[in-house]
Automatic annotation (TrEMBL):
Pfam families: HDOD
PANTHER family xref list: PTHR33525, RIBONUCLEASE Y
Extent of the signal sequence: none
InterPro entries with a match to the protein in the record: HD/PDEase_dom, HDOD, RNase_Y/CdgJ
Record's protein name: HD-like signal output (HDOD) domain, no enzymatic activity
Domain HDOD: 18-216
CDD domains associated with the record: HDc (cd00077)
Organism: Clostridium intestinale DSM 6191
């Protein structure tokens, strides 16, 4: 099957198969999108309007992954220990992952559990890279990783037959992105993700990461965020290909690794620890408890 990029984008924009965001969630996202400092009390009140988001968020923050010295009892505590920007991005990531879980699609070939592990692997790798670079709000990068591939989940919901065909092409050694371009007239899951970001009013940094994690040199803004997620996604893609037993021509960008001041020894260290870390974090985090 072949389809034009315009047709794919049109379906994504107009479909009723994808979830709609409730007004209270949209209001929370708009509040977070504002560049000025957010009043923590107002943020907490807004969170309380969104189902059990507060409880779900605190449960996951206290899960063990975030290596906190004490139990976090409130959103204010979370901001103190993780930083406002990290908490903001985690809130958005949890909301979007709950609205658009990786098992929402209908592909016969895609193993949603394995693909979720790729997303989690990207989050963990991005977190480790940010930590290596001395970035203070490193958990913001963990949040980016959780939702960097929302376009692929949307593709699975709206065009499961394309996801199946992409997988069949991957088995022949062609990378996922190249296979998508072949079938969808140059369109990729990153383009679809960009449409979702616009549809749901997600902040520009998230939209840029979603749009450019496969084309980091094309990003005009948030270049550091995009480069980190690009390398993290690449590391996790190689891990994912082993999980699903395919071997494609996908490779890491040494140019981006050099731009970040990293070396292959560090990349290989992440690659070695990633499988065990993914299994551990997969047991620690629970998105199913969020009820909107």
């Amino acid at each position: 099957m072949k389809i034009s990029k315009e047709s794919v984008i049109s379906v994504i924009k107009n479909t009723d198969k994808l979830p709609t965001i409730k007004a209270e969630i949209s209001d929370l996202i708009i509040m977070i999108n504002k560049e000025e400092d957010i009043n923590i009390t107002e943020l907490s009140l807004k969170i309380n309007e969104c189902g059990n988001l507060r409880e779900a968020l605190l449960t996951n923050i206290n899960s063990g992954y975030f290596k906190l010295q004490r139990k976090i009892e409130s959103i204010k505590d979370a901001v103190v220990y993780l930083g406002m920007r990290a908490v903001e991005k985690l809130i958005v990531a949890y909301l979007i992952k709950s609205l658009l879980p990786t098992n929402l699609g209908n592909s016969k070939e895609l193993n949603s559990e394995m693909y979720w592990k790729h997303c989690l692997g990207t989050s963990i790798a991005a977190n480790l890279i940010a930590e290596k670079l001395g970035i203070e709000d490193k958990y913001r990068y963990f949040a980016y990783g959780l939702i960097h591939d929302i376009g692929y989940t949307a593709l699975d919901v709206c065009f499961p037959e394309i996801v199946d065909e992409v997988y069949e092409i991957q088995k022949k050694g062609v990378s996922q992105v190249v296979a998508e371009r072949m079938i969808m007239g140059g369109c990729t899951h990153s383009d679809i993700g960009e449409v979702l970001c616009e549809k749901w009013n997600l902040h520009e940094d998230i939209k840029t990461v979603v749009k450019h994690h496969h084309t980091p040199l094309a990003a005009e803004n948030y270049k550091l965020e995009v480069m980190i997620l690009s390398v993290a996604d690449a590391i996790s893609t190689l891990y994912y290909e082993k999980l699903v037993k395919v071997s494609t021509n996908f490779s890491l960008s040494h140019k981006i690794i050099d731009e970040l001041g990293l070396d292959m020894e560090f990349i290989e260290e992440i690659s070695k620890v990633l499988p065990n870390k993914v299994e551990m974090v997969n047991k620690q985090l629970n998105f199913a408890i969020l009820s909107l």
